[in-house]
Amino acid sequence: MRRVAGRSITTVDGLEPAVAERWADALCDSGGSQCGFCTPGIVVRLAALREKTADPTQHGPVDRALQAHLCRCTGWQTIVEAWDHLDAPVAERDLEAASRRATIEGRSPQVVGPQVALGRGGFADDHAPSDALVAVPDGAGGWVVAETIVEARRAAGKVQGRRTTATSEPPLALPDGDWVATLRTSWVEPAYLETDASWCRPGGEPAPLTANGGAFGGKHLDELPRAARELADRHGRPVRVLWSREDSVRFGPKRPPVAGGVRADGSGVIHIARTAGVADVLAKVAPNLTVVEVDVDGPPTSADLRAAGWAEAAMLATAARGRTEVVTTDDGAWAEAEVDDGRIRVRVSAGEVLDTVVLRSYAIGAAHMAFGFVTSESVTVDPSGTVHDLTIRSFGVPRSVDTPPIEVEVVEAGGPPVNGSDAVFVAVASALWLHQGCPADLPSARLAL
Ligand code: FES
Q1: What is the pLDDT of residue 249?
Q2: Is 82 in the pocket of ligand 1 (CB under 6 A)?
Q3: Which of 196, 200, 391, 396 is the most exposed place for a label (fewest CB within 10 A)?
Q4: Which pLDDT score, from 0 to 100, does residue 135 have?
Q5: Ligand 1 pocket, 35 CB below 6 A?
Q6: What is the CATH classification number for the domain harbouring 374?
Q7: Spacing, Cα 196 to ligand 1 middle (Å)
Q8: Is residue 76 in contact with ligand 1, taking CB distance under 6 Å?
């Protein structure tokens, strides 16, 4: 509040319509907005920067401006490309086909269009009725319901924005063995930007959590809509059910930590935090690894998070081979990656392309996420299992300025369109880890390539 005292504040809806439209078109054209939750703030900041920039070919000020933001989806590069091509003519595209491609990559309904960049992705809490009650977790497994979010939080005794200086440690011990490479990973937060929210009218259908994007498999799809329906019926009023960022971090699933070793012939052992479905994934993608599920105190984990278990097993296999390989999926997608000359190069094929901008954007986002997974992302969890990193700044998502250039070649293939970005994540994580000399503990804290 001290920083804004005496100043005027412009939000995206306060921009000149022509300015907002120009940025929305540029971001849609470059693929610089996926779920769109982060984009309105970025539009406002870049529009303001542009007004006072004499030489828009310089990226330094753009990188600095983006440090005030966090985009989980795009990997930044396509946002900077929108800056570069702000005045380019809008390309002719089939936005319905683009939305289909985005829905396949996000594994959840997703709309592509300039309106998304202006915050009109249809997020649940944006279209809740204005007279809705508000429900927040009460800290004991139930909900506190009140007229306003302030009252609900006060009644629940919530303290917003706690952060820790404690370090994050991989929680699992390595299995004994004569390994050529070992890998230990930490708890990793999916870090989707739109916090979990739903609402419902009495007797109605609850608003889905994933209005525009799948949150990388991280959202509790049933719990909040169910609570919204029950509370609306009980109170006879519409009810918004909201998780704060801290709630999403405390209760939302993390990537299951692993500790594994591999022999030169590719056989080995992988210990992994007990997670429904993950043993089946590993049995399929890594039949040479003996899988041991381990009970470990900590937040919930999920096998639905992007390539959970699959990527870690592929990384160990890559270390045993000493070289990368094409990553394939059951439904016919493939991806390969190399790290060379300070940049990440990706080739991806995912059936009918539908829309190159969107597939490329998702490939860059997945490569950025893999870059963060290998180098910088983790969440501090103490030995009793309590999560200490509760703000999105503390998860270690790489900033624009830390992200290497990512080159993507989209390879057209016949057949139905299928998800390609998960294979990109696996290919890039494997290539990066190998490039860094297979450091035993992740994140490696080595952002420079
Ligand atoms: S588009 Fe930036 S967080 Fe989704």
Answers
A1: 87
A2: no
A3: 391
A4: 95
A5: yes
A6: 3.30.365
A7: 15
A8: no
Q: Mutation test of ligand 1: which of 71, 76, 400 has the most ligand atoms closer than 8 Å to its C-beta?
A: 71
Is 36's C-beta closer than 6 angstroms to any atom of ligand 1?
yes
Task: Give CA–CA dist 367/346, Å, rounded.
Answer: 8
Which neighbouring-strand residues pair with 240? 134, 199
Q: Are residues 373 and 390 in the same domain?
A: yes
pLDDT digits (tens, 9 = 90+) for 41-52: 999 999 999 999
How sure is the predictor about 435, in pLDDT bands with cuts at 50, 70 and 90? very high
215 lies in some domain? yes
315-359 confidence digits (pLDDT tens): 999 999 999 999 999 999 999 999 999 999 999 999 999 999 999
Number of domains in the chain: 3
Q: Is residue 169 part of a domain?
A: no
The percentage of residues in the chain with a pLDDT greater than 70, rounded to a whole number, is 97
Task: Enter the tokens of residue 253.
Answer: 């699933």
Q: Is residue 6 situated within a structural domain?
A: no
CA distances from 351 to 61, 131, 306, 384, 414 (A): 38, 46, 19, 46, 5
- For residues 359 and 405, membership in a common domain is answered with yes
State the alpha helices, DSSP H only, in 308-436.
310-321, 356-375, 421-435
How close is the Cα of 193 to the center of ligand 1, in Å? 7
Q: Is the pLDDT of residue 272 over 60?
A: yes
From ligand 1's centre to the CA of 194, what distance in Å?
9
CATH number of the domain that 46 lies in? 1.10.150.120
The number of the ligand 1 atom at minimal distance from the alpha carbon of 35 is 4
Q: Residue range 8-23: average pLDDT? A: 96
Residues 385 and 337 both lie in one domain = yes
pLDDT band, very low/low/confident/very high, at 157 (cuts 50, 70, 90): confident
Segments forming the whole domain that contains residue 224: 126-159+196-242
User: CB under 8 Å to 186, separation ≥6 — which residues?
Assistant: 168, 169, 170, 171, 257, 378, 379, 442, 443
CA 243, CA 62: separation in Å to the nearest integer?
A: 32
Contacts of 112 (CB under 8 A, 6+ apart): 28, 95, 98, 99, 101, 102, 355, 358
Best mutation site among 73, 212, 397 for ligand 1, i.e. most ligand atoms within 8 A of its Cβ?
Answer: 73
CA–CA dist 341, 239 (Å, integer): 53
pLDDT band at 259 (very low <50, low <70, confident <90, very high): very high
**Total residue length of the chain:** 449
Is 250 part of any domain? no
| pLDDT bucket at 391, cuts 50 / 70 / 90 | confident
